[in-house]
Design brief:
The model has no long low-confidence stretch (mean pLDDT about 95). By secondary structure, the chain is of the alpha/beta class. It has six helices and seven strands. The protein has a single domain, classed as Rossmann fold (3-Layer(aba) Sandwich). A seven-stranded parallel beta sheet has the order 3-2-1-4-5-6-7, with helices on both faces. About 40% of the residues lie in helices and about 15% in strands. Helix 1 crosses helix 6, helix 3 packs parallel to helix 4 and helix 4 packs parallel to helix 5.
Length: about 240
């Protein structure tokens, strides 16, 4: 990622997404923020302190119109799209037999369909620009190794689809010089987790702690600059998948 390039980041009004936006603008990039809450987006954009490098689009990524509007905003404000970070999504534990059809539909829409549709909009623009690009999805290591005490079948099914989409698109889009990778976090200290309980998961990782948002940001920044890397799932999990202490 170089100065004056443009990054679209979904789910960027807080947590991992907002930290990513802060890191990219610090490096001179333009960012287009996205979230469902207009008020939070306005506050997030203001917190970055560089209005000339920031735009935002409020909307549900499960609607095709949101992806199209994100791209149109990036083109109108900054001249194009160079990178997409598909960060938006929901994740919460619930016993398999208790998951309602409505909850399952919500995860599939927000985590998988939304990622799919926004990526379609961005890839069309990247192809028309003819200069390649980078797509980085946020998945989860729990796709590979679940936690018995943290049942999350519905969000994991949707995130598993995101991992599969990564591999498929890496192959399909390589000829266009569009790289597609995934960062797969373990347990990270974000608003998705209860503050009073999240550190209790530290013992499952070899490094005996949970991850911090900045560590996920570091992984995304690495993939953003890894010009010969595509189709890769980069774990940021403190060694959880490799082995448990």
């Amino acid at each position: 990622m170089t100065k004056n390039q443009t990054v679209v980041i979904t789910g960027s009004s807080s947590g991992i997404g907002l930290d990513l936006a802060r890191a990219f603008v610090h490096r001179g990039a333009n960012v287009v923020l996205n979230g469902r809450d207009q008020t939070k987006l306005v506050q997030a954009a203001a917190s970055l302190g560089v209005p000339g490098q920031v735009a935002y689009v409020a909307g549900d990524i499960g609607s095709r119109e949101t992806g199209d509007t994100l791209v149109r905003t990036a083109v109108d404000r900054f001249g194009g799209v160079d990178m997409l970070v598909n960060n938006a999504g929901d994740f919460a534990p619930k016993a398999f037999v208790d998951v309602s059809e409505e909850e399952l539909d919500g995860y599939l829409r927000g985590n998988l369909k939304g990622t799919f549709l926004v990526t379609q909009s961005v890839v069309r623009q990247m192809k028309s620009q003819g200069r390649g690009g980078s797509i980085i999805n946020i998945g989860t290591v729990l796709v590979d190794h679940a936690i018995a005490g943290f049942p999350a079948s519905a969000p994991l099914v949707s995130k598993g689809g995101v991992h599969a989409l990564t591999i498929s698109l890496a192959a399909e889009l390589a000829a266009d010089n569009i790289r597609v990778n995934t960062v797969a976090p373990g347990v990270i200290r974000t608003p998705l987790h209860d503050r009073s309980e999240v550190d209790s998961f530290g013992g499952i990782a070899l490094m005996k702690r949970i991850g911090e948002v900045a560590e996920t940001t570091g992984a995304v920044l690495y993939l953003a600059g890894a010009e010969f890397t595509t189709g890769h799932v980069l774990r940021v999990d403190g060694g959880y998948v490799t082995g448990r202490a």
